[in-house]
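lol ok so funny story. i was supposed to be doing the assay writeup but got distracted and ended up predicting the structure for this chain instead. priorities right. anyway since i did it might as well share w the group, maybe its usefull for someone
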Amino acid sequence: MRSLLLASTLMIGLVALPAIAQDKNLAAKMELAQEYSKLVPVEAEVETSIEQLALQVPVAQRVLFKSILKENIKADRLKLVSEMALVELFTVKELKAMNEFYGTPEGKAIKDKMPEYQERLQPILQGMIQDSIQSLERQMK
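and the output, tada:
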């Protein structure tokens, strides 16, 4: 398993290397990405996601479903990929702004409330998607 993680990390690094090599701010960006990972921990995001997904499974199967998800979702790998994506996508200035925001009490509160916010939107969006699919099916007949 460790060798798979190492191989994945190496492949991500090799794919991202040309873009990153051109970036003179790489060290600063890596440091800021790691700071972001501390402010917005992937592990907490994974746990929240697992809890939300489990709500979509019948109660009798939730414990098993959650254990399967926890076994298969590798937070350390997600953290690495997240940090690489942050380095590739954002500028030093943007990363600093993100870290400053999430370091504030308001930023922390927003981060903590975001799963509930998304949970409230999810059924509405799913309904809209379902209506769209039904409309498409009617029009295709």
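The chain has a mean pLDDT of 86. The chain has seven helices and no strands.
back to the writeup now i swear
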